[in-house]
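Aim 2 progress update. The chain analyzed this quarter is reproduced below.
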Amino acid sequence: METSELERLLHEHTAAWNAHDIDRLMGLFADDCEFEASGGPDVCGTRYAGRAEVQAAFAAVFETMPDAHWGDGRHHAIADCYGVSEWRLTATLADGARIDVLGCDFLTVRDGTIVRKSSFRKQRPPVPQA
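Predicted C-alpha cells:
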C-alpha cells in the first residue's frame, strides 16, 4: 500500500469513528482483524479477535460514549503496512462524567484493510459531572 493510500485509510478510520457508523468502520477491517483495547486485564489491554468480536467491542464504545469524538487527529504512515493515528478523545459517560484524554492507534494493514488496531490512551479518570 502506498503512503498516500495508507494516510487516506487512517483519515477514513478516524472519520468513521466520529460518524459513529459501525458499518462504515467495519468496512475498513479484514475478516481476521484484531483489536487491542486501551484497557483490560492483559498486558495488551483486552484483545478482540475476528470480525464479530471486534464489531461488538466497537459498538460497546459507541454505546458507552454516545457523543465520543476523536479530534485533533494526526496521521502518520510509518511503513507500507503500518501507520499511527494520534487523537484527543472527548466524551460523556452515562453518569455525566467527562472523558478528555490523548491517545493513539497503531494500525497494521494488509491488502488495503486493517488487520490489527492497537489503541493506547492516557490514564486519566473521567472528570465528575459539574
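The chain has one domain: 3-121. The chain has a mean pLDDT of 95. These observations will guide the mutagenesis experiments scheduled for the next reporting period.
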